[in-house]
Amino acid sequence: MIVLIMKNQILGLLSDFGTKDGYVAAMKGVIYEISSAITIVDISHDIDKQDVRHGAFVLATAAPFFPDETVFVCVVDPGVGTIRKGIVVEGKEHLYVGPDNGILMLAAEHEGIQHVYEITNRKYMRHEISATFHGRDIFAPVAAYLATGTCPEEIGKEIFDYIVLSWTKVEIKNKKISGGVLHVDGFGNIITNITLDDLKQEGIEFGDVLNVQIKEQVNKIAFYETYGKTQPGEFLGLIGSTGFFELAINQSNAAHKLDVSTGDIITISRNMLSP
Amino acid sequence: MIVLIMKNQILGLLSDFGTKDGYVAAMKGVIYEISSAITIVDISHDIDKQDVRHGAFVLATAAPFFPDETVFVCVVDPGVGTIRKGIVVEGKEHLYVGPDNGILMLAAEHEGIQHVYEITNRKYMRHEISATFHGRDIFAPVAAYLATGTCPEEIGKEIFDYIVLSWTKVEIKNKKISGGVLHVDGFGNIITNITLDDLKQEGIEFGDVLNVQIKEQVNKIAFYETYGKTQPGEFLGLIGSTGFFELAINQSNAAHKLDVSTGDIITISRNMLSP
Amino acid sequence: MIVLIMKNQILGLLSDFGTKDGYVAAMKGVIYEISSAITIVDISHDIDKQDVRHGAFVLATAAPFFPDETVFVCVVDPGVGTIRKGIVVEGKEHLYVGPDNGILMLAAEHEGIQHVYEITNRKYMRHEISATFHGRDIFAPVAAYLATGTCPEEIGKEIFDYIVLSWTKVEIKNKKISGGVLHVDGFGNIITNITLDDLKQEGIEFGDVLNVQIKEQVNKIAFYETYGKTQPGEFLGLIGSTGFFELAINQSNAAHKLDVSTGDIITISRNMLSP
Q1: Pick from A95, B97, C32, C186: CA 20 to 30 A from residue B119's CA?
Q2: Which residues contact C20 (CB under 8 A, 6 or more apart)?
């Protein structure tokens, strides 16, 4: 008896192209032309236009859950047509392909960067290369060749001066923890870069009331394990599914209510009212 | 000669996660990690946030057309983090996985519910389970294991006290048929729960003029087989592709014009002007 | 040793159904019911409602990049329920399935039309055919049968009186080139039907300044190879990834700034200031 275990090669696509144009489909066509056996997965195509940080965050929340050897192509590329490089990043588990503007690096650093290669080998690009759509003409074919077994070293020479985005650092002083808003998600949840460890360091525990300052405004918000401790419409702080401290409203939109957006600074301390 | 017939296992995904975050992709990663040979199909991720009825309706309009043994995972889950159960529903043709809030039941009842199981077996969940994202940590892996051959009984014990949504019932008296608006679709078509049989019972036939009352307003609208009987911009009633009575405007948006939304009551009677 | 080369049959889907309903998924269910081994690719489902030209343009920008024998189903169908025909177009490389309203023809003419068949053979349709959703009941199953090897001639008889959309023609006189706006993309780039050859004919070269007239307004805009020659916020003309002359703003939205939409006339001439 022959038992056939199918193992499909997964290729994830992320872009700011939206869904009203043929750009994403053109990239998929190029990939299938190289191998129709690749399984293409849309990570998101609704990244805010040219917003490299938005793309980097979404990629970093999804990539860790994918099988080893998944190849991700990410095209948020305000620098297309300038001298910015195209790169392949070899992480411990996955491969990442895209422009050298930092979009790949939040996810790649999370798992550990092994090597970064500049894309230079014309053999793995389309014949004609447009000035404006490297996603279709360079990144998609490079990713498809990687997915079908081409070694990253084949794509170009290793480089060490790649770009990494800087993010607001978490600082703790005078019993105040301050961090940055990494992302506001579609539910209006405000995701910061503050971790449970940061909170524990200041003695903050589930059930405590927090003073949460954003811009000039201070709100008293309780810190709970889960939405189930609150009523619909009630604010809470919690550790979200990305492992970071989030502000949310049960069944409503916290970012609208607090007028918060990505990049804002948030400062937290334990309120005296805490049990 | 060896002829190889590929039969891929289909897994349908529905959520209110939208497409600007990494949540849907994280679920897909979890599924592919279990088996990269599963074919994942997006049913919709643009269900109105927390709107269980919207999700239930969209699932019910799509599921009947899928092959037997398709597994559907549906995550519209305002109760995540409360004591609401997670369930697997075994219908006559398909399997459904999601929260026990009724979202699965419109589709499942349509084909016939065989068994409902509470999801309790940790073996089929992710190791770490977040308080806020059971779609990724429980429902996605359970569905992937079901798609690769795990029996539903393995997931947990059978239950009988699952939640079913109640929908406005169609009532017929004094020659008036009243029902509810199940859904307003993207074209602005107003889909009710009134069927052709209900209309026939009151002697209504294609070509008739109907008095259609919504809130305080009564409109005279002709009942036709198809858009082809009207001019662009003209109202009509028809039996839509879901088998229900719909109000529409040829090439325009009826819901905007009549200011109707899901849950509104609609009352129909045959107008004396009918031929 | 047995080496197994998988070659999946690709089927592209384009519609104006949006992503909040179950319509697209119902079509996918019908396709998988016929063969679960087909790889379905979403081209776009966010075509402007009933906008056949939008659909035709998006299809034409994506189709050329897909493997030979890819089958495309395109459902932007304001005429559903009238006497408009359903057709299969056999191009030199791909097959196209949809309503006979011109949506398929921009892509098909580009590669060369071999034959056009009217869809009449009930054997390849669903049993029950709704009056309003031929995408699900006729086009999806026809496409799935074509993808699994059915010959186009099986679907119905060849016809020659199919519909082709007319597009604004490029005209050159008195050193002015006038054309039409084919499409405004999600970035706000204004894509015209003027080609590099048209520009060359009037002696226009990269680096020149152009007088660009839209409606009553004339703007001076430089013509460059690529965004890299401009600063963020600066206008430019360039040859875009579709091979046509585009107006754009580096990292911003040109269509909003110039208040341009599809179908507008654009007139270009070489400005005296050009180097």
Answers
A1: C32
A2: B44, B46, B47, B48, B54, B58, B185, B186
Q: Sheet harboring A39-44: ordered strands across?
A: A39-44, A10-15, A71-75, A95-99, A86-91, A113-118
DSSP state of B158: B
Chain B residue numbers with beta carbons less than 8 Å from the beta carbon of A249 are none
Distance CA(B22)–CA(A64), nearest Å, equals 11
Question: How far away is chain A from the Cα of B68, in angstroms, using its nearest Cα?
Answer: 21
- Helix (H) or strand (E) holding B152, with range, is none
The string of pLDDT tens digits covering residues B90-116 is: 999 999 999 999 999 999 999 999 999
Q: What are phi and psi of C89, to 5 degrees?
A: -110, 125
**Span B238-252, mean pLDDT?**
94
Query: What is the assigned CATH class of domain B170-270?
Result: mainly beta
C-alpha C156/C-alpha A99 separation (Å) is: 48
Size of interface B-C (CB pairs under 8 A): 112
CATH level 3 topology of C10-154: Rossmann fold (3.40.50)
Spans of chain A below 50 pLDDT: none
User: CB B29 to CB A251 under 8 A?
Assistant: no
Q: Which residues of chain B neighbour A60 with C-beta distances below 8 Å?
A: 22
Distance of residue C238 Cα from the nearest chain A Cα, in angstroms: 9
CB pair distance less than 8 Å for C238 and A37: no
> CB A131 to CB C45 under 8 A?
no
Domain locations in chain A as residue ranges: 10-154, 170-270
Neighbours of chain B (3+ CB pairs under 8 A): A, C
CA distance C232 to C159: 51
Closest residue in B to A10 (Cα–Cα): B36
pLDDT at C243: 92
CB within 8 Å: A44 and B19 = yes
How many angstroms separate the CA of residue B85 from the nearest CA in chain C?
A: 26
pLDDT at C82: 83
**Cα nearest neighbour of B17 on chain A:** A186
Q: Number of A:B CB contacts under 8 A?
A: 113
Q: What is the ipTM of this complex?
A: 0.94
* DSSP state for residue A107 in the 8-state scheme: H
Q: Exposed, middle or buried: residue B20 (CB in 10 Å: 0-12, 13-18, 19+)?
A: middle
Nearest in space to A271 (alpha carbons), one of A227, A212, A186: A212
Instruction: Identify the contact set of chain C against chain B, taking CB-CB distances under 8 A.
Output: 4, 17-23, 25-30, 32-33, 36-37, 40, 49-50, 78-83, 130-133, 136-137
Burial environment of residue C236 by CB neighbours within 10 A (0 to 12, 13 to 18, 19 or more): buried
- A17: chain C residues, CB-CB within 8 Å: 186
- Nearest-10 Cα torsion for C47, C49, C53, C55: 30
Give which of B193, B183, B180, B189 is closest to B59, Cα–Cα: B183
Q: Measure the CA dihedral B149/B152/B156/B159, to 10°.
A: 170
The secondary structure element, H or E, covering residue B3 is: none
* Chain B closest-CA separation from residue A159 CA (Å): 29
Residues of A in contact with C61 (CB under 8 A): 21-23, 25-26
Task: Give the separation between CA B18 and CA B20, rounded to whole angstroms.
Answer: 6
CB within 8 Å of A127: residues ≥ 6 apart: none
The span from the CA of C108 to the CA of C10, in Å, is 17
CB C218 within 8 A of CB C235: no
The predicted pLDDT at position B145 comes to 98
